[in-house]
Amino acid sequence: MKRRTLLHLGNDIVDLLSPDIQQKYLDQRFLQRVFTAQEITTIQNHTNKNQVLWAIWAAKEAAYKACQKQFPALIFAHQKFFLNNSTLISLAQSKEFKELTGTLIYQNYTINIKLQNYSDAIHCLAVINDLQLPFKNWEKIHYSVLETYLQPNNTNPLNLKKYFSEQELMSIFSTESLLTRLHAKQFLQTLGFDPCIEIIRPVQFNHLDPPHLVIGNQVLTDCEISLSHDGQWVAVAVCYNQANL
Amino acid sequence: MEESAVFAKVVSLVTPFCKNAEVLNNINEKTRFFEDLNVNSSRMVDIVLAVEDEFGIEVDDESLNRIRCVGDTVKLIMEKI
Question: Per-residue b/e over B32-71, b at no fewer than 16 CB within 10 Å?
Fold first, then answer.
């Protein structure tokens, strides 16, 4: 599939109330595996260590998702995706950020990020463009973050599956994923997309490719979509009409 | 160490990170971390660190990225021990 997008989009959400991730800043092995020395210092010196840790994590994940669209064989080596110094300083100086834009570096690529704090969740958007230009058109990135308040075990997936085609269902493996896709489709309709739009994630060599949008049998090559879910939260980010960016 | 013993140990390491009891009861070498066990990427890091500690091995990022299922983990460990 030949893509005509000018930029590539990623997003990641972290449920800060998930019991698995509390006080992760005490896990030295995890810190040293994932974060650079400067990032660890920023985390350890902050008054809200857990929030900052997962903010940097979400930035790395979102950046990787964006870069993976440009470089499909990309390996996710967490430490090789790192926040640049000015972004780390901004994070360090904000006691409780609401929104923060900055950049993340991977090799000689610069990825633009936008972090948002929902108190119980952290969301990050990431954009990499082919021309390596600074990205300022965040208003062109449409996104929606939702706390589901649902217990996945109590959600009847059979009722929800009726909203998806067979091809879509081939890459949906959990109730959380189902809820994310449902939210994404509802969001796309609010943006004016055709209700028949499909969100497809091809399965290649036993792994899932990033999602793309399809209407009929036509792939929307000038649209970017990114999905994320964690705990009670789902998130979707979309970019289209990229000639206007 | 026999492969079956490695498999059993991997299952014990994975179990705390997976909440789906039904899938855990039927876990086998083809069980996939993401699709079947619903393990997210940060939990995957935890699992790999637990494997490193248990078996005294190092798992580099390239190897971590290739792990899709329980069998991949067992195979990696057998190559390194």
Answer: bbbbbbbbbbbbbbbbbbbbbeebeeebeeebbeebbbbb
> What is the reported pTM?
0.93
**Position A49 confidence tier, pLDDT thresholds 50, 70, 90:** very high
Rounded to a whole number of angstroms, the distance from the CA of A245 to the nearest CA of chain B is 31
> Could you tell me the pLDDT band of residue B24, with boundaries at 50, 70 and 90?
confident
pLDDT tens for A21-32 read 899 999 999 999
Q: What is the pLDDT of residue A132?
A: 67
Asked if the Cβ–Cβ distance from B34 to A173 is below 8 Å, we say yes
Nearest to A30 among B45, B62, B68 (CB): B45
Contact B43 A20 (CB under 8 A): yes
Q: Radius of gyration (Cα) for chain A, nearest Å? A: 18
Q: Could you tell me which chain A residue has the CA closest to the CA of B16?
A: A20
